[in-house]
Amino acid sequence: MRTRLLTTVSVLMVVCAVRAQDPQLSQFYAAPMYLNPALTGNTYQDRIGLNYRIQWPGIAPGYETYAVAYDHNNAKAHSGYGLMVLHDQAGSNNLSFTHVGGSYSYEARIDHSHAVRFGMRLGYTTRYTDMSNYLFADQVIRDGAPASVEPTLLQRTSYFDASMGFLYYDEHIWLGGSFNHINRPQQSLMVGGDVRLPIRTSIHTGYRLALDGRSMSRTRSTFNVAAHYKAQQDWDQLDLGVYVDHQPVLAGLWYRGLPGLKSYKPGYPNDDAVILMGGLQTSRQLRIIYSYDITINWLGLKTGGSHEISLTYEWPARQKNRKFHTIPCPKF
Question: Which fold is adopted by the domain 2-315?
Fold first, then answer.
């Protein structure tokens, strides 16, 4: 009974007080439309992607995130079009949400090798929680009463959501930013509640160079340095990483956190994980990437870390005698 009561209190804290952040992916460039709508259509022509993440499986049942996306590059119109479905589920009471969004991007070329892109995503989100396992304090006090007299929880709520982003790139450098929930939608699961979803800001940048002495349009081996800063209300975080893409194999090492720069309260430093990543691309344009987050914060190894896998398929295959002005962001 105590476990059920504590679970209920924890869920209500998440629902009623906006302290949690949106789900995050270690392989954030493998979900480009979630990272930044300006990346919609960052492909040769067509692309479909699948993402799955299980975070902290050692604290059963953990947090699971699923995503599926399709986007198309219309080179003649300098535009990209895409559709994304994202589902996230947390805890034993199925506190979850499903987001369906359509994205559009437009590219304005500065010259042959430099360009800027702008994008927007418009979507609809449904939040849900399973009421059957909740146990409120007044039920305990009233000798296990079958119903609570506390303010009523809604089992489901829905809202419209809007995001926008930009990106600059050339053959070596990229710098982008996105702003999610710009309309601050109402997300409360309490009757009469007023909990606005805070804006999530993302700044991502990187640099790549060829390791085989070839031009960037012909190389099959690159070294990449990248960074991704995220902030949402009173939470922020920084991903720093390096990886080598030696086709068909990719391997990388990342750190997530802000050591020494911020501490939410005494004894709670802003460190999260060290991330190991590896994968390959088949001859049929299918990329398969796996990553594991080693938890380094105060929760320790008892969390079980985080496992993540992504599958990305692009078509048609890139032809050697044809140039594609695609963004040099890492495609893992």
Answer: Porin (2.40.160)
**pLDDT tens for residues 79-137?**
999 999 999 998 766 789 999 999 999 999 998 888 999 999 999 999 988 776 677 77
Q: Which residues pair with 312 in a beta bridge?
A: 49, 287
Q: Which two tokens stand for residue 68?
A: 């599926």
Domain locations along the chain: 2-315
CB 24 within 8 A of CB 309: no
**In the predicted structure, residue 141 carries a pLDDT above the cut 90:** no
**Type of residue numbered 13:** M
Better-scored residue on pLDDT, 158 or 15: 158
240 touches 220 (CB < 8 A): no
- Please give the pLDDT value at position 151: 63
Please give the Cα distance from 97 to 216 (Å, whole number): 40
In angstroms, the CA 152 to CA 39 distance is 41
Residues 5, 144: Cα–Cα separation, whole Å:
12
Strands (E), the chain: 46-55, 63-74, 79-90, 95-109, 115-128, 156-169, 173-180, 200-210, 221-232, 235-246, 249-257, 263-265, 268-269, 271-281, 286-295, 306-315
Return the structure tokens found at 205. 């940048």
Answer whether 248's CB lies under 8 Å from 233's CB. Answer: no
CB contact at 8 A, 135 and 150? no
